[in-house]
Specification:
One of its GO terms (molecular function) is calcium ion binding. Belongs to the SMP-30/CGR1 family. This protein is mainly beta and 295 residues long. It is built from one helix and 24 strands. It has one domain: Neuraminidase. Helix content is 2%, strand content 48%.
Length: 295
C-alpha cells in the first residue's frame, strides 16, 4: 500500500483548497489565515506565494489566466500576477461573522463558494455560485461550516459536507446545474474525525479529509468505506488529485489553534502530503467566464 509523504519542506497555518493545474503541472493552495495563495511546480520544486489583503477561503483558476477568489468581503477576479481587477459580489453573509471557506468549480466551469459561521450559535452559513455572466446566487443555507464540495463526472450530483455538524450531503442537479433537494448522504459520530474538504475520482468515489481524525477516507457512490489512509498529523483539511496521470492525491493539513506541545510532537502539522492512488481523479475545470476580454 502506498504511503502518505510530505510534498516538500513547508508548514502553513491553515492550508486549504489544493488545486491542480494540469497545463503547467503546478499545485496551488491557499493559506487562509496568512492571506496567501501558494504555488508549487512539481518538476522544478519552485515554490511561490501571492499575498492578499484578506483571508482567501477558496479560489479557482480562470480560463484566461488569474484566479477567481472568495475573500472575506466578497468574491473577486484577479489577473495572472494576482492583482485584483474586479469585484464580482459582496459576501452574502455578514463578513464580520462569516468568512468564505471551501469552494471550487463544477464540470461546467461555474464557481461555488461556501462560508463558515464563526459564532456557531446556529447554522448561519451558506453556499453560493458564480455563473459565467458573473451573476452570484445563493443555493443553500442551513449550514454551519461549508466544506467537502465535489461533483460527479456527469455533473448530476453535487456533494458537500458540513464539518462542524459531522455530515456529508448529496444534492441532485438538473440539466442546467440547478440543485434539487439536498439529502443526507453520510453522517459521522461525534469522535474520530469530521468530514472536511473532498475530491471525486473517475470511478465516482468520494475522498474526504477527516479533520480531527488523522486520516483521509474513500467512499463508494453508495457511501461504503473503501479505503482509509493514516496521516502523522491530526487535522487534514482538503484533498485534490493531480500529477501527470491524475493519480497523485494532494492533502493539505493545518496547525491552526494547536498548542505548542502538539506542534512539537507533530511538527508536520500544516504540511502538504502526497499519496499515490490506483485510480485517477477528476480535473477541476477552470472558471469559465463570458466575454472575459472586456472584464
Amino acid at each position: 500500500m502506498h504511503k502518505l509523504e510530505p510534498l516538500f519542506d513547508y508548514q502553513g497555518v491553515l492550508p486549504e483548497c489544493p488545486t491542480w493545474d494540469a497545463q503547467t503541472q503546478t499545485l496551488y493552495w491557499t493559506d487562509i489565515l496568512q492571506k496567501e495563495i501558494h504555488s508549487y511546480q512539481t518538476a522544478t520544486g519552485q515554490h511561490q506565494k501571492l499575498s492578499f489583503s484578506e483571508e482567501i477561503g477558496c479560489f479557482a483558476l480562470r480560463e484566461q489566466g488569474g484566479f477567481i477568489v472568495a475573500m472575506r468581503s466578497g468574491i473577486y477576479l484577479t489577473d495572472s500576477p494576482g492583482s485584483v481587477t474586479r469585484k464580482v459580489c459582496d459576501n452574502p453573509n455578514n463578513p464580520a461573522l462569516a468568512r468564505f471557506n471551501d469552494g471550487g468549480t463544477d464540470q461546467q466551469g461555474r464557481f461555488y463558494a461556501g462560508t463558515y459561521w464563526a459564532p456557531r450559535d446556529y447554522n448561519g452559513a451558506l453556499l453560493c455560485r458564480v455563473d459565467a455572466d458573473l451573476k452570484a446566487t445563493v443555493l443553500q443555507c442551513d449550514i454551519l461550516g461549508a466544506n467537502g464540495l465535489a461533483f460527479s463526472a456527469d455533473n448530476r450530483w453535487m456533494y458537500t459536507s458540513d464539518t462542524p455538524n459531522h455530515v456529508i450531503y448529496r444534492t441532485p442537479l438538473d440539466e442546467q446545474g440547478n440543485p434539487g433537494l439536498r439529502e443526507v448522504w453520510k453522517t459521522f459520530p461525534r469522535s474520530n474525525g469530521r468530514p472536511d474538504g473532498a475530491a471525486m475520482d473517475s470511478e465516482g468515489c468520494y475522498w474526504s479529509a477527516l479533520f480531527d481524525g488523522y486520516r483521509i477516507a474513500r467512499f463508494s457512490p453508495s457511501g461504503e468505506l473503501l479505503e482509509e489512509h493514516r496521516l502523522p498529523v491530526r487535522c487534514p483539511t482538503m484533498v485534490c488529485f493531480g500529477g501527470s496521470d491524475m493519480k497523485t492525491l494532494f492533502v493539505t493539513t493545518t496547525r491552526e489553534n494547536m498548542a505548542d506541545e502538539e506542534i512539537r510532537e507533530r511538527p508536520l502539522s500544516g504540511a502538504l502530503f502526497t499519496l499515490k492512488t490506483e485510480v485517477a481523479g477528476l480535473i477541476k475545470p477552470r472558471f469559465k467566464q463570458n466575454s472575459p476580454s472586456s472584464l
